[in-house]
Amino acid sequence: EPEVTQTPSHQVTQMGQEVILRCVPISNHLYFYWYRQILGQKVEFLVSFYNNEISEKSEIFDDQFSVERPDGSNFTLKIRSTKLEDSAMYFCASSQGVYSNQPQHFGDGTRLSIL
Amino acid sequence: DAKTTQPPSMDCAEGRAANLPCNHSTISGNEYVYWYRQIHSQGPQYIIHGLKNNETNEMASLIITEDRKSSTLILPHATLRDTAVYYCIVRDQDSGAGSYQLTFGKGTKLSVIP
Predict the structure, then answer these.
(1) Partner-chain residue, chosen from B30, B43, B103, that has the shortest CB–CB distance to A108
(2) Over chain A, what is the mean pLDDT?
(3) Each residue's pLDDT tens digit, B25-53
(4) Could you tell me which of B41, B32, B53 has the C-alpha nearest to residue A103?
(5) In percent, how much of chain B has pLDDT > 70?
(6) What does the pLDDT look like over A39-67, one tens digit per residue?
(7) A81 to chain B, minimum CA–CA distance in Å?
(8) Is pLDDT above 60 for B1?
(9) Which residues on chain A are in Cβ contact (under 8 Å) with B46?
(10) CA neighbours within 13 Å on the CB side: how many for B29?
(11) pLDDT at A2 over 80
């Protein structure tokens, strides 16, 4: 069964450094998402992306964050200058469309640890 | 905020059916009910979704009440590997012309006991 893959599984970065998290969505999917989950808390939506544009973003997704699909297969989340509070699990998801009956499928996440 | 209410935890004996309830009394007519689960902080795994009719797939069954104000996810023969947090989600359409995000609540922690 096709799946969303994320790399790396664990990323350790010094505070203030830039980090890029990578995702390969399911191949025939057109919509892409990032979510995060701080340890012990809920899964939170960050951003959705379609046709090389951001479709929707949450208040969490501030100017420190950016997304792109550089080569038609990878979907990346960049955090420009990491803060301690960025430590979390980051999940990528994809869906064929955005109609209510089209589920999002998630990868297993990247654990980001900021020191 | 999540538009659903779920019990924080439930136990189920291995091999028995697990019935996980969800209340979504403010659901509107075109909103689907989705169920996901999360095992050991892995990514949320899609289970099933429905609008008004009962649905069944290889993982589970979804029973939606006629008034659509509540639903039940049924795992017919729970195994130890079904121990996870189960999330009931109504697609949020409050942010204008269609919202893409899934809004997760705290879910129900299901413990399958040998």
Answers:
(1) B43
(2) 94
(3) 999 888 889 999 999 879 999 999 998 88
(4) B32
(5) 91
(6) 999 999 999 999 899 999 999 999 999 99
(7) 25
(8) yes
(9) 103-106
(10) 0
(11) no
Chain CA centroid to CA B8, Å = 13
Contact check, Cβ <8 Å, B30/A56: no
Give the residue among A43, A82, A42 at the shortest CA–CA distance from A65.
Answer: A82
| Proportion of chain B above pLDDT 90, given as a percent | 76
Q: Measured between CA atoms, how close is B98 to chain A, in angstroms?
A: 8
Best interface-test mutation with B: which of A3, A43, A92, A106 has the largest number of B CBs within 10 A? Answer: A43
Nearest-neighbour CA in chain B from A62: distance (Å): 17
Give the separation between CA A50 and CA A79, rounded to whole angstroms.
20
d(CA B62, CA B71): 7
Order of strands, sheet of A65-68, starting from the edge strand that comes earlier in the sequence: A5-7, A19-24, A75-79, A65-68
Cβ pair B41:A89 closer than 8 A: yes
Q: How confident is the model at residue B64 (pLDDT cuts 50, 70, 90)?
A: very high
